[in-house]
Amino acid sequence: MRFKRILLKLSGESLQGEQGYGLDEKRLAEYAEQIKEIHDMGVQIGIVIGGGNIFRGLSGVGRGFDRVKGDQMGMLATVINSLALSSALATAGATARVFTAIRMEPIGEFYTKWRAIDALQAGEIAIFSAGTGNPYFTTDTGSSLRGIEIEADVMLKGTRVDGVYTADPEKDPTATKFDEITYDEIYNRGLKVMDLTATTMCKENNLPIYVFNMDVKGNLRKVIEGEHIGTLVHK
User: Any idea what the CATH number is for the domain that residue 85 is in?
Assistant: First the structure.
C-alpha cells in the first residue's frame, strides 16, 4: 500500500453531479463507496471538502457581499457538504466524525490536531469543515494545513481532471499532462493546481500533492495501490 494516512481534498462543485448546483445523492454515494473501500484496506483518512456547489465567498464579493461575511458563508457551505458526506459514509457502513474550525456543537466537534489523530487511530474517518476558520483562506489552504497537522503522507486532490496539465485540458485540446512536477515549476508556469498559499505550505512542510480524477469510480483505490493515474507534485 502506497500511503497509510492521507488528506483527501474534494471539490464542492463535484458534489453537485449533473445538477449544476447543490448536492447529488448519486455522486455522494459514489464518493462514500470509494472512501469506504480504501478505509477497509486500513488507510487512515482525513477529508476536506470545498463549498462551491452551495456558495463561494470570493464570487459573493462580486455580488455585493462583504468579503469576510462572504467567506464565512462559504465556510458554512463546507459544513453542509461535510455533514452530507458523513451521512453517506454512515449509509455505506463507515464511521465518520465531522470536525469544525468554528465552534458549533452539536453540529460538529471543535477541531484540534490531537482529537483528529485520536479519531483516525480509532478507525474513524475525520472530516474537517469550515476551512481554517478564518476569512481570506481557501479550502485548498485548509487542506494543506490539516494535512500537515495530522501528519499525512500525502494530500490527494480529487478533481474532475486526471492530473496537472500544461494548460486547462477542458479549454485547450493541445494541453499535455505531467506525471510529476515540482512546486517551483507550478509557480513558474503559473499553473492553477491550488492557490499559492496552499502550495507554499505544502512545499515548506514537504507534503506531496497527488492530483487525480475522483469522478471515475475505482480511481481512489488505484492511487492508494500505487497505480500512476494522476500527477505527483513534490520538491
Answer: 3.40.1160.10
What pTM, to 2 d.p., does this model score?
0.95
C-alpha closest to that of 205 among 71, 38, 45, 7? 7
- Cα angle 182, 208, 2 (rounded to 5 degrees) comes to 125
Give residue-wise pLDDT tens across range 102-115: 999 999 999 999 99
Cell for 91?
Answer: 449509509
> Percent helix, strand and coil across the chain, each rounded to 5?
40, 20, 40
Element (H, E) at 35: helix 25-39
Q: Based on the structure, what is the number of domains in the chain?
A: 1
How large is the average pLDDT for residues 173-199?
93
Q: Which grid coordinates are listed for 168?
A: 486547462
Range of the domain at 55: 5-234
Determine whether 203 is exposed, middle or buried from the number of CB atoms within 10 Å of its CB (0-12, 13-18, 19+): buried
d(CA 60, CA 54): 11
